[in-house]
Amino acid sequence: xxxxxxxxxxxxxxxxxxxxxxxxxxxxxxxxxxxxxxxxxxxxxxxxxxxxxxxxxxxxxxxxxxxxxxxxxxxxxxxxxxxxxxxxxxxxxxxxxxxxxxxxxxxxxxxxxxxx
Length: 116
Hints:
This protein is α/β, with parallel strands linked by helices. The chain is built from four helices and five strands, in the order βαβαβαβαβ. It has one domain: Hypothetical Protein Ychn, Chain: A (3-Layer(aba) Sandwich), CATH 3.40.1260.10. It has a five-stranded parallel sheet with strand order 4-3-2-1-5. Helix 1 links the parallel strand 1 and strand 2. The longest helix is centred in the N-terminal third of the chain and has 14 residues. The protein is globular.
């Protein structure tokens, strides 16, 4: 059973995205297949060179760069949202996989955890 966790909020200013990330790491720790999909403002999680200290928080960039080591299968990112925020492939952390069809992507998973 493969789970997809969707993150649609920016990386700083709210705890909901971090809670989703914690859920993904917890599932992976118990050998449950899990992937993350970043949509909307959530694509900003994947931006290289984040300056989280400017908002007195720790950067999420290191956590995401290590996601594969901890068992996260894939970091998927919505291409349309990346364009909207001016993020090209070179601006994203290594290992992200762009997707064009969100519905088809979600349909590939047994479980989808939506934000909210």
